[in-house]
Amino acid sequence: MKYPIQLQRSNSSALPSYDFTSINFGPDHTDHLFCADFKDGQWQNAAVKPFSEFSISPLALCLHYGQTVFEGMKAFRLQDGSVSIFRIQKHLERLNRSLQRMCMPDVPEELFINALDKLVSTDQGWVSGLPGNSLYLRPMVFATEARLGVTEAKEYKMMIVALPISNYYNGTVKVKVETEYTRAAKGGAGFAKCGGNYGGAFLPTRLAKEAGFDQVLWTDSETHTFIEESGTMNVMFVIDGTLITPPLSGTILDGVNRDSILTLAKDSGIQTEERPVSYHELEAAFNRNAPVEAFGVGTAAVLTQIGEINILGRSYFPDCSSSGVAIKLRNELQGIRTGLLPDRHHWNYVVSQPDTAQMFNP
Ligand SMILES: *Cc1c(COP(=O)(O)O)cnc(C)c1O
């Protein structure tokens, strides 16, 4: 094996006293984490060890010029009791696209899969299996080289942390179409899950919140008329029964849930269109009383219905009933991820049992 992973078990566990009915997503984490270093042109020191703080130099380049990239994925408890990571391969491909855009080293498939497998199997007691619960996995890569200078770093750290999460949140969100600020422009890094894309979105989001909305609905940087995405969710509309979502133009994130929901929609015979959709088109649909559903899709929130869309000061109210396309597709996705429905696209990666841990070796 090219990247052996050391396992150093924690000698205490927060699991026995952890209350999975009141998960505090964000600060709560499992007992272990994965880490590895990129040095001298290769990944090394791969280990699963007790979760702890760590130190880096104030000169570490990630603190200065933004070479930080992350992923967000989930592990689920299947009906048969095993634990599965959802669409591991697709997350790896996207991680490497993000890393390439930021001039950072690729994470090899063997390292990525074995790291997640070993971390999740070590901490698999944290995948409770209670309805709506799962384990959020946050891989990240950042520049640690201690050498000030506006250049590509030569040293990096990769870490993966695991956080219990529940998605009992079934509310709807209010969004405001953003026509002043821009999230990403053509030729930029909008398709990459790199830190800077999020920091730059905080101010417009804060302003939208102060105006009574939950999120902004980003528009294209050139005309501010075509819808892009919202927060950390891709957006979809169902107008007259057709599911429409903005195309992967390079300015929006290539969401794994976007792809999954599109696939499930096609499977069930729903017409789908990946094409630019302007707010004028939305306004026109609302004004002629067409049936309109709107929702965001992403790993953290899964699928969130949009209950209000504000376009240039005027609010419109999409259909948020549970008999629509959105909830049907959400239930189907959830069914596949938890083993209730057949995994016909082979999206579930079943994690090794701790004792028999059989490592992936291509
Ligand atoms: C992560 C993310 C998404 C959703 O991607 P998933 O793979 O479905 O979680 C959408 N937009 C942005 C900006 C994101 O960061």
TrEMBL record:
- Keyword Transferase annotated: yes
| Top-level EC class | transferase
Family matches, as SUPFAM superfamilies: D-aminoacid aminotransferase-like PLP-dependent enzymes
Q: Name one Pfam family in it.
A: Aminotran_4
State any single GO MF term: branched-chain-amino-acid transaminase activity
Q: Write out the entry's keywords from A to Z.
A: Amino-acid biosynthesis, Aminotransferase, Branched-chain amino acid biosynthesis, Pyridoxal phosphate, Transferase
Q: Which reaction does it catalyse?
A: L-leucine + 2-oxoglutarate = 4-methyl-2-oxopentanoate + L-glutamate; L-valine + 2-oxoglutarate = 3-methyl-2-oxobutanoate + L-glutamate; L-isoleucine + 2-oxoglutarate = (S)-3-methyl-2-oxopentanoate + L-glutamate
Top-level lineage group: Bacteria
A biological-process GO annotation? isoleucine biosynthetic process
* Positions in coiled-coil regions: none
Residues modified as N6-(pyridoxal phosphate)lysine are 193
Q: What is its EC number?
A: 2.6.1.42
Look up the record and name the cofactor or cofactors this protein needs.
Answer: pyridoxal 5'-phosphate
Instruction: Give, as in the UniProt entry, the pathway in which the protein acts.
Output: Amino-acid biosynthesis; L-valine biosynthesis; L-valine from pyruvate: step 4/4; Amino-acid biosynthesis; L-isoleucine biosynthesis; L-isoleucine from 2-oxobutanoate: step 4/4; Amino-acid biosynthesis; L-leucine biosynthesis; L-leucine from 3-methyl-2-oxobutanoate: step 4/4
PANTHER family cross-referenced by the UniProt entry:
BRANCHED-CHAIN-AMINO-ACID AMINOTRANSFERASE (PTHR11825:SF44), SUBGROUP IIII AMINOTRANSFERASE (PTHR11825)
Family indicated by similarity? Belongs to the class-IV pyridoxal-phosphate-dependent aminotransferase family.
**Function as written in the Swiss-Prot or TrEMBL entry:** Acts on leucine, isoleucine and valine.
- Please identify the protein, giving its name as recorded: branched-chain-amino-acid transaminase
State the organism of origin.
Pararcticibacter amylolyticus
The uppermost taxa in this organism's lineage are:
Bacteria, Pseudomonadati, Bacteroidota, Sphingobacteriia, Sphingobacteriales
